[in-house]
Amino acid sequence: MALVFPFSAIVGQDEIKLALLIAAVDPSVGGVLAFGDRGTGKSTAVRALAQLLPKMKVVVGCPYGCEPGRPAPACEHCRGLDESKVKSRQVQVPVVDLPLGATEDRVVGALDLERALTQGVKAFEPGLLARAHRGFLYIDEANLLEDHLVDLLLDVAASGENVVEREGISIRHPARFVLVGTGNPEEGELRPQLLDRFGLSVEVRTPEDLATRIEVVRRRDAFERDPEAFVAKWKKEDDKLRRRILAARERLPEVKVPDATLESAAKLCMGLGTDGLRGELTLIRAARGLAALEGDATVGDKHLKRVAPSALRHRLRRNPLDEAGSTVRVERALAEHFGA
Amino acid sequence: MTDQDRTERSPWADAVLAATLFAVDPAGIVGIAMRSLPGFARERWLATLKSLLPSDAPVRRLPLHISDSRLLGGLDLAATLRAGRPIAERGILAETDGGVLLVAMAERVSAGTAARLAAVLDNGGVVIERDGIAIDTPTRFGIVALDEGMTDDEQPPTALADRLAFRLNFEGVSAEPPAEDAATAGDVAAARARLAAVTAPDDVIEALCGTALSLGVWSIRAPLLALAVARAHAALAGRSEIAKEDAAVAARLVLAPRATRLPLPPPEEEPPPPDEQQQDDQPPPDGKNEEQQNVEDRPLEDMILEAAKAAIPAGILEQLRLAGRIKPRQPSTGRAGHLQKTKLRGRPAGVRRGEPRSGGARLNVVETLRAAAPWQPLRRRERAMSGGPERSARVEVRKDDFRITRFKQRTETATIFVVDASGSAALHRLAEAKGAVELLLAECYVRRDQVAMVSFRGKAAELLLPPTRSLVRAKRNLAGLPGGGGTPLACGLDLAIALGDQIRRKGQTPFVILLTDGSANIARDGSPGRPKAEEDALASARALRAAGITALLVDTAPHPRPLARKIAAEMDAMYLPLPYADAAAISGAVKAVSPPRESLAG
């Protein structure tokens, strides 16, 4: 496998890096959507994340990679297993690419053509959704994704289960994943339903100051000329970050959310008129994830403030005549609430 | 070829140089966008490029409407049937590994195809998840985008253009005999061997980044591509480190054509735009420009609209307008309908069981095969028992197995706002029209309709917003709008007709909304005078009707006059007096009268 650009070597782009780290600490924040300028390294960040994630334990032989001791209810393989006899092994957390041009059969899984043709056996061949279980599903150019695939994803992302009814196959399997999408808003907008599935949404801008740009070019050049040396050079940083994710995961259940913070979050969401409770929930979860990453024991306003733009900007009701973008509106509301 | 850049360069020589550098490092330089109609010069240039590439490098042509299975790969049906087990087939992209892909008619490449190409370029491999096959094939190639666009509206998709280092324009360029010191395939091969060892000193990297920034080249890919070009140039010259002259060539060939503004203030080091380039013996910009770190980061459109227009040479301005131009996406959402012709067109929207004969629906061979597959052993046994022929077909397909692909296609509506920006009321009218554009876009972006905007004032009409469905883009383009001056109504209508025609050729339905008070006073040729101007306006109105474009005229005059009504009649347009037109009223009116949505077929 070709080497990928190390996560910690990415210059700037703090918002997307933070959002991905939070999602790595607490997958329940929902996915991450990164929209922005071309060539800003959105895909680089996501691919780098794959290398960064700590390994996870899976049940040996389970086609969906269930967690030992906590099999997914929909998993047919693990349902009947005797817990004490389950063997486990460490694997890389899957970051599965949903390439453009993917066909439905490969996404949801279908009849195993090879076995059907050669042996005449009707067997199920799991698709990308199965592979992404407990990991990340990455859609580059999310706004160019075929509509029927979007429909499919929406359904699975909501239920955490993939139901396959094809070619006489009838199967249900767990498919719980963090959806990560990137795209360019100039190629068209995203369907609101899909937008809503993403917990955090970040805007990626081309860095405009010279020093940052020079550093980007320099590191990229160094990486392309000698990937092994470059990756080796950054390994320490990546390892450090990995340990931070692990520590944050352990800390997460203990991080407290005081009532005052809950109230702050609720007021903020009310002030912005976000639809539904999902915004509030995501805001709190993301803030908790951030607190865990930072090593803080309680979630405070400073955490809310940092994650609010990502958690809320895509949930605002659209007001096309408001010149200010949604980021500005969130920032305005933050300033009002926290008097910053 | 060390000192070659000191001599005066013709566009042809530049093109040959670009081809040479590209041949040295196709994967790093990624590609060349070549804007030219097919012709002798282009053929000669392509032949030159081919002669410089290694003899075993594949050169493949990418047809415009290639299917995913040919582009990316998939199931090789013939081989699968022959072998009785699934055999994967490589697509064109994988076949081009190590070579060059020629993208014909690049200006018509869909955003979808461009995104697929971009993904392969970015991943360094073709990742397919298709037809029951999952393969990751490492693939590196260069791209030559043959852009045959003739108008500014016809551009290769930006997702593709942004990744190609060179932008050449062959309009009016004729082929020249090869220069005496022209690089040979041998030189290129030697440079290729040297390439990896060429180092980039920090000041070169800084200079390229600085130049890009002060020319308003925002994409961070541009300096990276410039660096690759400089490296190839150094390798070709036999240097082990990138020198100033290498960086200068890279800045001239890669950065200047992308410039969106002239440097502020123009430092001497900046390379002038290519068409004015006489000499290029200026030293490359060196780190001195760092004062420019804090270059004004005003949005581009301010530059266009406020002042810079006159100051920027035509070549640069053209680039400005091209920046961010986007190919419309294929339509994809909507209701099911029954347009016969769309049975075979549009994008696939799933597969269902059905007869390929009914209504000419297209058989999906792979799905059919898939459906037939599990039954094969059974059917063979069955046939043997019923005493059928000994050697039956390898795969028995029955009627039940037939799967047909459903296609979705919808005729999109593209609403063209034609706004009278003349006189004192202009600003208000423009602001409201702009509001209406944004409202419409915000409301119909789910349906993916498009909106465009044309304004006319002074002596001419101007395309302010090419058809788009992007709210982000509309906001940016419409941020500042000039107003005032005469009323060249005829020009406005003419531009709307031309645009309508273009939209129709893309398979969309144009719908014109004219916001004016109807008091034309500038004739088509730009001369003042009411009678001539009115006559021209009426003639253009008739032309609009002849073109069969549905229209609505919103009369914004405080006291509606008969002329506007007359123009509406000539246009066969609906007439709507709205003296205090506001954004909401306009968008409401548009929604009420816009042509019925044609639906998609299944």
Automatic annotation (TrEMBL), chain A:
Reactions performed catalytically: protoporphyrin IX + Mg(2+) + ATP + H2O = Mg-protoporphyrin IX + ADP + phosphate + 3 H(+)
Pathway linked to the protein: Porphyrin-containing compound metabolism; bacteriochlorophyll biosynthesis
An individual GO BP term: photosynthesis
GO molecular function, one term: magnesium chelatase activity
Transmembrane segments annotated in the record for this chain: none
Domain of life: Bacteria
Keywords in alphabetical order: ATP-binding, Bacteriochlorophyll biosynthesis, Chlorophyll biosynthesis, Ligase, Nucleotide-binding, Photosynthesis
EC number assigned by the record: 6.6.1.1
Pfam families listed in its UniProt record: AAA_lid_2, Mg_chelatase
Residue ranges of domain AAA+ ATPase in the record: 28-208
Keyword Phosphoprotein set for record: no
Similarity annotation: Belongs to the Mg-chelatase subunits D/I family.
Role according to the record: Involved in bacteriochlorophyll biosynthesis; introduces a magnesium ion into protoporphyrin IX to yield Mg-protoporphyrin IX.
PANTHER family in alphabetical order: MAGNESIUM-CHELATASE SUBUNIT CHLI, MAGNESIUM-CHELATASE SUBUNIT CHLI-2, CHLOROPLASTIC
Name assigned to this protein: Mg-protoporphyrin IX chelatase
The organism of origin for this protein: Rhodoplanes serenus
TrEMBL record, chain B:
Pfam family, one: VWA_2
Highest taxon of the lineage: Bacteria
Biased composition (Acidic residues): 267-279
Signal peptide per UniProt: none
InterPro entries documented for this protein: ChlI/MoxR_AAA_lid, P-loop_NTPase, VWF_A, vWFA_dom_sf
Chain residue ranges for the region called Disordered: 259-295, 325-359
Protein name stated in the entry: Magnesium chelatase subunit D
Organism per entry: Rhodoplanes serenus
Source organism phylogeny: Bacteria, Pseudomonadati, Pseudomonadota, Alphaproteobacteria, Hyphomicrobiales
